[in-house]
Design goal:
Elements (H helix, E strand, L loop, with lengths): L11 E10 L13 H5 L5 E13 L7 E14 L5 E6 L2 E7 L5 H18 L4 E15 L29 E9 L4 E9 L7 E17 L1 H22 L2 H5 L3
Length: 248
């Protein structure tokens, strides 16, 4: 595992751990509400999570008929300060941490604790393990204007030479495979709309996951460690030394 320098002001705006499971036939979704009883001190806010399924019917000579049903597929529990939340659904579990992000260990351990409570109510085969980090950082436009995005991004978008070089927005998405850990990464870079004329906001969204018919619980958490290392590699390989200076 490569060692990367610790960034005091890491640009993480949101991090999440997501574990998907096989849906169990006949499971009563309302049982997941019991999680509030054991987590209310840390996650006092509780909301139902709704899922809508629609369908269209077409009959010759008649206007299309649309119909749909709305059901509860889980619950969302949120901390008092809104910085942490977890979803308990019939198809899986998600733990989110909003900024300020602390450490991987603190983030992982809280997810593991909450997963244990969830798994105690709804045990089923794990089919997907994912880790996603959304990073946002502001490139300063003063005192020196930005000459090229590749000052900060190693895989910045390129405008063909014969065209005007002014870029008002961009969105790139690359999907790569890491066969040694059977993982896939979706790497998204975007230039957001300007809010402050002194800075140019950049999004670097890294979504890494492993998917299989069955993943044991022990393997799932080992996989998350490997995904975290993979995520770190993607992040540091995606930014330049000049960009790193923004986060120290």
């Amino acid at each position: 595992m490569a060692k990367y320098s610790h960034l005091k002001n890491a640009p993480i705006t949101e991090a999440l751990i997501d574990i998907r499971i096989k849906i169990r036939d006949g499971f009563d979704v309302h049982k997941l509400e019991l999680l509030h009883g054991v987590t209310a001190a840390q996650y006092p806010d509780k909301k139902k999570r709704h899922k809508w399924e629609g369908r269209f019917e077409f009959k010759k000579g008649e206007a299309p008929i649309s119909a749909g049903t709305e059901t509860i597929d889980g619950y969302i529990f949120t901390s008092a300060n809104g910085k942490q939340l977890f979803q308990a659904r019939i198809d899986g579990f998600t733990f989110n941490r909003l900024k300020p992000y602390e450490t991987w260990e603190a983030f992982r351990d809280e997810a593991l604790r909450l997963w244990g409570l969830y798994e105690g109510l709804l045990s089923s085969d794990i089919t997907r393990v994912a880790l996603r980090y959304i990073n946002k950082f502001d490139i300063p436009l003063f005192p020196e204007p930005l000459r090229d995005f590749n000052e900060y991004l190693t895989a910045a978008p390129i405008v063909p030479e014969g065209l005007p070089q002014g870029v008002s927005s961009f969105l790139t998405r690359v999907v790569i495979n890491e066969p040694t850990i059977e993982a896939i990464a979706v790497i998204t870079q975007a230039f957001e709309q300007l809010v402050d004329s002194r800075y140019l906001p950049i999004i670097l969204d890294i979504d890494v996951f492993k998917q299989r018919d069955r993943i044991s619980e022990e393997e799932a958490w080992q996989t998350l460690e490997a995904l975290h290392d993979f995520k770190n590699k993607i992040f540091f390989e995606s930014i330049t030394e000049k960009a790193k200076e923004l986060f120290k």
